[in-house]
TrEMBL record:
<dbReference type="GO" id="GO:0004146">
    <property type="term" value="F:dihydrofolate reductase activity"/>
</dbReference>
<dbReference type="Pfam" id="PF00186">
    <property type="entry name" value="DHFR_1"/>
</dbReference>
<dbReference type="GO" id="GO:0050661">
    <property type="term" value="F:NADP binding"/>
</dbReference>
<dbReference type="GO" id="GO:0046452">
    <property type="term" value="P:dihydrofolate metabolic process"/>
</dbReference>
<dbReference type="GO" id="GO:0005739">
    <property type="term" value="C:mitochondrion"/>
</dbReference>
<comment type="pathway">
    <text>Cofactor biosynthesis; tetrahydrofolate biosynthesis; 5,6,7,8-tetrahydrofolate from 7,8-dihydrofolate: step 1/1.</text>
</comment>
<keyword id="KW-0554">One-carbon metabolism</keyword>
<dbReference type="GO" id="GO:0006730">
    <property type="term" value="P:one-carbon metabolic process"/>
</dbReference>
<feature type="domain" description="DHFR">
    <location>
        <begin position="8"/>
        <end position="188"/>
    </location>
</feature>
<dbReference type="InterPro" id="IPR012259">
    <property type="entry name" value="DHFR"/>
</dbReference>
<dbReference type="InterPro" id="IPR024072">
    <property type="entry name" value="DHFR-like_dom_sf"/>
</dbReference>
<dbReference type="GO" id="GO:0046654">
    <property type="term" value="P:tetrahydrofolate biosynthetic process"/>
</dbReference>
<keyword id="KW-0521">NADP</keyword>
<keyword id="KW-0560">Oxidoreductase</keyword>
<protein>
    <recommendedName>
        <fullName>dihydrofolate reductase</fullName>
        <ecNumber>1.5.1.3</ecNumber>
    </recommendedName>
</protein>
<dbReference type="InterPro" id="IPR001796">
    <property type="entry name" value="DHFR_dom"/>
</dbReference>
<dbReference type="GO" id="GO:0046655">
    <property type="term" value="P:folic acid metabolic process"/>
</dbReference>
Amino acid sequence: MEMSEKKPVRLIAAVCNDMGIGKDGKLPWSLPSEFQYFLNTVTSVSRPGKMNLMVWGKLCWYSHPESMFPLPNILHVVLSKTLSTVPDHAHFLRQDFDSAVRVAAEPPLSDLIETIWIVGGTQVYQDALKHPWCDLLYLTDVMADFDCDVFFPEFNRTLFKKQERFPGVPNEIQEENGIKYKYQVFKREAVDTV
Ligand SMILES: NC(=O)c1ccc[n+]([C@@H]2O[C@H](COP(=O)([O-])OP(=O)(O)OC[C@H]3O[C@@H](n4cnc5c(N)ncnc54)[C@H](OP(=O)(O)O)[C@@H]3O)[C@@H](O)[C@H]2O)c1
């Protein structure tokens, strides 16, 4: 059996006042600078040649325009039990969350991949929150009400503690298109329970 090399599993999302994240298969808001922050975060690697893995639910994958791809330093895994071929611009198709994590943790890619970024939707976030390698949640607090039909799952805020400051993450309140928002990071404080 192949050895599995532990990789950080990190969630990234923007959530509004009631933890909503989506409406009608799209983002409920237009915040281009926040989206750029998302792209900068997930494409960041420690040195040239390294890569990150991005794990997508099927609807989330298809909600992004093809013009967004390719993203530098990223290999994409799409999760679906019904698709039979890897979607255009993606690299892997897997049927469950643990299989997606194994893409990064086992040879041949375990030497290459640094971070496993979880980009939603709800079920994928839920699975990731339960994973023992999950250490950080990057949650942008969109400080407004939006009508949403998809929500970020409840999580244990005793286990995942909001950081007062986090390296590389702006601390001041941002504003775009009349919407205030704040970048936040929650860090896992213990590893035994979720
Ligand atoms: N605000 C944000 O930061 C943010 C982030 C992400 C998404 N969103 C929004 O959220 C919405 C999309 O999220 P969603 O929750 O509706 O859908 P989703 O998770 O993107 O897609 C759901 C589908 O993905 C597959 N899937 C998901 N989890 C799986 C798993 N663990 N194993 C196997 N297959 C899995 C299934 O496909 P099959 O049915 O083919 O099996 C499932 O029907 C959009 O509105 C999007 O804009 C917002």
